[in-house]
């Protein structure tokens, strides 16, 4: 009888051990590979996020699709199926949410970013003030009216123009001096770095990442516009568990620390 009892205990222990192994295997499988659609202005941060998240989740591969939020939105509407969507536009986040693309209770603010004006490091056009942007012959780069940085750039320009010190003539001159409209924020940064334009409207985080190549012309806060980035799990995410793990990582201490190191501010 005692022998049967001991054998039963051994079987029970083995059973628990097998269940633990099975649980571990299922857990690893549940994380799986994660596909994330990411606003292009997070390009630099994504290069650090990938290895840190993958190290924390062995066997997992994160694939980033980096583009302007408006382009990513179009891809989703045309049938693309990422697991996670990181947007640089409150407008596009709202539209995708209302259209049922996101798991509603996962849609949340991730970080924020201010608009700033930058010039090449040697600043050949000697742009040091907002007024200088309206001088004849200046070459300016900004985002298109569909790209998030372009949307907020226009809000900033409108605020400045509403001040009597600048007015509509200043606004008209700035647009007359705009030589290129880029479909991504990094595109504007590159034009300024290469010296193809005298100034550009970009995000503060991009300036902080390229201070050795750029000068900044500060936009007073009363004229500025805070850009909110959001993160959400897709309703039809192929890997819902992986999406949840990635979103928790980005909203957690480690993800926020990486974002802060690239010049992004926490969401209020």
Automatic annotation (TrEMBL):
Signal peptide: none annotated. One of its GO terms (biological process) is molybdate ion transport. Gene3D superfamilies: Periplasmic binding protein-like II. One of its GO terms (molecular function) is metal ion binding. CDD domains: PBP2_ModA_like_1. Coiled coil: none annotated. Keywords: Metal-binding, Signal. Pfam families: SBP_bac_11. This is Molybdenum ABC transporter, periplasmic molybdate-binding protein.
């Amino acid at each position: 009888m005692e022998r049967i009892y001991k054998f039963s205990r051994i079987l029970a222990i083995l059973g628990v051990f097998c269940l633990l192994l099975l649980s571990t295997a299922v857990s690893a499988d549940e994380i799986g590979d994660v596909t994330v659609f990411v606003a292009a202005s997070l390009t630099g941060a994504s290069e650090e996020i990938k290895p840190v998240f993958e190290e924390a989740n062995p066997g997992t591969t994160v694939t980033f699709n980096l583009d302007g939020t408006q382009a990513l939105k179009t891809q989703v509407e045309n049938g693309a199926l990422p697991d996670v969507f990181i947007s640089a536009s409150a407008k596009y986040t709202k539209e995708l949410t209302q259209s049922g693309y996101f798991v509603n209770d996962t849609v949340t603010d991730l970080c924020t970013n201010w608009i700033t004006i930058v010039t090449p490091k040697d600043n050949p056009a000697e742009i040091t003030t907002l007024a200088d942007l309206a001088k004849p012959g200046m070459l300016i780069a900004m985002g298109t009216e569909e790209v998030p940085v372009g949307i907020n750039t226009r809000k900033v320009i409108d605020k400045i123009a509403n001040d009597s010190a600048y007015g509509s003539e200043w606004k008209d001159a700035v647009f007359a001096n705009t030589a290129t409209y880029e479909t991504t924020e990094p595109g504007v940064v590159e034009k300024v770095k290469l010296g193809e334009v005298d100034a550009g409207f970009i995000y503060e985080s991009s300036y902080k990442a390229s201070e050795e190549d750029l000068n900044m012309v500060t936009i007073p806060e009363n004229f500025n516009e805070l850009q909110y980035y959001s993160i959400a799990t897709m309703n039809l995410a192929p890997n819902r568990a992986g999406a949840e793990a990635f979103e928790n990582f980005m909203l957690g201490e480690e993800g926020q620390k990486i974002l802060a190191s690239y010049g992004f501010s926490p969401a209020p």
